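Before a colleague's protein record goes any further, I have to sign it off. Thanks in advance; the entry in question is below:
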Amino acid sequence: MPELPEMETYKTLLNQTVVRRPIEAVDIQREKSINVPPDEFVRRVRNRAITVVERRAKHLLFVLDSGDVLLLHLMLGGWMFYGTERDKPDRTTQVVLSFGERSLYFIGLRLGYLHVLTMQEAARKLAGLGPEPLEPSFTAERLRQLLGRKRTALKPTMTDQKTIAGIGNCYADEICFDARILPTRKIETLAPEEFAALHRSMNDVLRAAIRFGGYMENPLFPGDALTGGFDSRCAVYDRGGEPCVRCGRPIVQEELASRKVFYCVHCQR
């Protein structure tokens, strides 16, 4: 599932490609992926221009010149492609926004969605999300306050979007590895210096992942050299049984709260 760095990468690239271009056509191929009748969706979106693409947690917000917002959550298996019909991957699309010769294809929206909302509706839908971990106001002390009230294991708490926005399975494991803390640790056992280490690692790992385009491998458009560059840099995620990059011992793969979890039992305490 795309997480904060993947959606930030999409945001950056889409602001360079589709902003200020009129949406000439809209094709709805799966009504369950939208929130209003197709005729209303088309009426509110066609001939509008996207003024800016913003991100909140794992969501993208396509702000239209009408004041409406297209709120996107890709969920598990969702991704996008921008290009011509000739270049498009041979995959089923659920919604297509056409900008002349090129279109933005929304792929794999079986669990995800693209909703057209007013600004107020979008704000209400996102109101329950936790703080953004890369905001300047998100300090180590703020992290300790948020997590310190919990009595659960570290990883499930870090991936709870109401607690911290944007972190999912991959980056929770990578952050814990970088901080040398087991993702299975009970939060009440963490010392103040460990909260500080987690905060440093959140900044370091998430910023590096953004810089290298996240871990998802599907390019947004032909010639996209950014998307997916962090995949080969993952230290533990999806590397069960492989040697740890620090100590060489095998990475452990287990299940925690119905999620896969990856860690090094030797390097993480």
Observations:
- Residues 4-126 form a domain with the N-terminal domain of MutM-like DNA repair proteins fold (CATH 3.20.190.10).
- Helices lie at 4-17, 38-45, 119-126, 140-148, 154-158, 169-179, 192-211.
